[in-house]
Hints:
A: Rossmann fold, 4-stranded antiparallel β-sheet, 39% helix, 13% strand, disordered N terminus, B: CATH 2.40.50.140, 2 domains, 5-stranded antiparallel β-sheet, hydrolase (chain A), RNA polymerase II CTD heptapeptide repeat phosphatase activity (chain A), BRCT_dom_sf (chain A)
Amino acid sequence: MSLVTDSPVSSSGSDDFADFLDDHLDAESDNEDDNGEAKDEFASSSSSSSSSEDEWEDDDQPVSKRTKISEVEIVQNGDAAEGSASHVIVEQKLEASSSASVSKNECTHPGSFGKMCIVCGAQVEVSGVSFANIHKEILIGNAEVARLRDTDTKSVLCRKKLYLVLDLDHTLLNSTLLSHMVPEEGYLNNQIDSVQDCQNGSLFRLSFMHMMTKLRPYVHTFLKEASQMFEMYIYTMGDKAYALEMAKLLDPKNEYFHAKVISRDDGAQRHQKSLDMVLGEESAVLILDDTENVWPSHRDNLILMERYHFFASSCRQFGFGCNSLSQLKSDESEHEGALAAVLNVLRRVHHIFFNELADQTGRRDVRQVLKTVRKDILKGCRIVFSRVFPSQFPAESHHLWKMAEKLGATCATEVDPSVTHVVAMDPGTKKSRWALENDKFLVLPRWIEGANYLWQRLPEENFPVKSNEPPKSEAKVKDPDA
Amino acid sequence: MFFHIVLERNMQLHPRYFGRNLRDNLVSKLMKDVEGTCSGKHGFVVAITGIENVGKGLIRDGTGFVTFPVKYQCVVFRPFKGEILEAVVTMVNKMGFFAEAGPVQIFVSNHLIPDDMEFQSGDMPNYTTSDGSVKIQKDSEVRLKIIGTRVDATEIFCIGTIKDDFLGVINDPTTT
């Protein structure tokens, strides 16, 4: 660097050149001493070992220095154009700098596009995450993904946002093939909204895909509100064309999702979803999905949704014998439905994350926040189960028991005065009678499941245990995981 | 880079085209078949500019199809390493941006975007300098240098850089 500042730029030039040459040769010989060992190491891997001597000395210098030198040279060359020696040097220098800028040995090949390194353009095989949702040929190495994730998360957090991964089917909407529609649903054909008007409409017929799609009530408001707090991704097990079409319906102005639509065709594993393609730290990602099993390693990020079955074919697919919403000509409540409930949860998580935990920037974890929020739902309840589990079954590992504990309730096997709720299928059991006698709540298991889906303690009166109804089938309907 | 070259192709023609317009039919079929395709050796065939010579047709046994060897002049486009291209940005994301120069897709990674340009997400993702004077977003026109190419049978992929002198945005759709 000193060369640039120290060497006086004069019109005669040739003296400066002599100085410069001397300095430079000194510098080169220094480098040679310093890097003798390194050179040997590299020599074996170098493709051009015969000419490596000169190249290595050049490469060892910082690029910026060399560029500056060549700039100086050019200035001086312009001043002393007659000096033929200077001309040669300029050419050498330019050569050196260009060889350094494409120097392959320094490139770590952070990713590839069409089997070429995205930084140096060399043909490489990079192992890493395929970002097929962006371009089918893009592959990013794990280290680079980590770096992108880190910077992206920081910028997203700066804007007071978190990440939200949304499932499509049964979460935000429900689709059916036209051929699977039952005669009772024929009336829907008269209620179709035009695709141009997807901002207000909710029922669409996509003739070219042979599909009818019903958006879940409240979804427009939900997306609008959620987009204020979250960077949103769509992640669906549907194929790419379907995913993009649905994204168009949900987001006609392309405000929310852009290229952040991930479909089955992009994912590496079948029947599973992962956060590989989501460029956010796991500690800042929330997932909204109706199926727990597809997220084996991210259950803590997951907000489980009650499945939205609008069409009869969808009910049949999950083995429900009951009439679908479309057959009943009804729909989920707009303002008390699952999406409205979840939006409140999202608001709470967001609020806690950015307001109550604002001082612990480094250690904030959305999974912990979610757990705390969930634990508040049935806080203070002490639950005893009666004839819910098979008698030999270890009660602590039953999913209802675990669910109740996750919701903040404490569970017990025997009744005592501190118990607040008895969960039973049958009012005739000993514990049920005890509950009635002692003025405790006697509720169906659905009460716990309902609280789990709607994220609030539901009124116990709505879940009375009656002796005349066949409780088993009733519970089954509402409990797809059972 | 564009080249004007002569290529040859064997065209099979259905007997129903034989007649006064045989030559016209042959040429229009050639255009339909060839223009817009990509060959690994020559790159994209952009346009056919003339027919040099139509050889003698050979009748195929059994089918009645006739094979004509056709020599034609055409303009081809093939990107080269080191070439400077002007391209239109098609997508911007955290990893960099994609641009198209005609049929060629070019990816410019964020490593090869000048360090003073930062990614801004939002409804129009873009790379912007800290003073906001230069912005790369969808539909921006950029001048870039190709540093790597891969030519497939049907597609050409390139890696580009704008981290060099005189490269970068040449036309911003928002300011015009």
